[in-house]
Structure formats: C-alpha cells, structure tokens
Amino acid sequence: MAVGVELWEIAYRWVGVGVAVLSLSGAIRSLCRVAPQVLLAGGSRDGLNGTTNTRRRRRARYLMYASATAALGLLVAPRITTSFPEVAAFFGGAAMLLVASLAGIASFLTGANSRSRTHTFVPSLSRLGIANVSRQPGRSLLTMGLIASATFLVTAIQAFYLDADAGGLSI
Quick one: CA dihedral 111, 113, 116, 120, positive or negative? Predict the structure, then answer.
C-alpha cells in the first residue's frame, strides 16, 4: 500500500473500473445479437428471445433494492466510522439513489401493459408524456439520468462553495 493512500480508496477505484467494464461488455454483447440493419433503422434489442419484460422488470427491481441499500450504507457510514470521508459518502450515496430511482422507473416502464399507461383520468399532456416515455424507455431513462445528475452536481458543488458562516454546508 502506498503512503497516504487508504485501502478503501484503492478498493472503490477498482470497483468503479469493474462496474464500467461489466456494463460495457453487457451492452456490447446484447447489441451484437441484433442485426446491424435493425440497429440503423432505430430498432433495439426488445425483440430478442430469452429476455422478456418480466425478467427485465425483475432485474430492475433487484438493482433498485441493491442501490437503495448501498445508498443507505454510504450515507450512514460517516456517522459510524471517522475514517470514511463525508464528501465521498455524500456523492456516492447520491449516485446510488440516482441509480435506484432510475431502476424503479425502468421497472415501471417494463411492466405489463407498459404501452397502455394512458388512462382516461390523466390530463392529455400527461398522457402524451407517459406514451412517449413508454415508446423509447432507454432514451427516456438516459435523458432523466443526465438531467438529474447534472442538476445534482451543479447544486451540490455550489453548496460546497458557500461559506459555512453564510448558511452553507459545513461538511
């Protein structure tokens, strides 16, 4: 171990690299099963055999529960031990909450009758939004994730710049 570097710092860097490699390999593997003409025409992997909406919904729920548990652990860790940095716990917990919320939305969108979520009691503009989100759920989740993460980062970094005497965060 290098001088001044804690074991958890090395561990979470390698965990991040491992998650990135697994995510990319899974995405590439699933896209290799789809014909290039279908991908160029705007198709997706929805028509693949073996991956049903029930399995996707179950995986999304498991990811939601695991991410929410990890977020709770990260947000509580600085209260339990003093060696865990509060800023890393704050940003890590927020990232896990973002993953949990996106997985919950994905579970909702891949549920039974996901295309017929437009009920008569919902106003017409909301019906249009729900129909469009259900039409391209991957694109919708990507957009939601990008907007949520950008909003969080801008707000959190600005809050850290505030002076603690002026009402800012004293982390």
Answer: negative
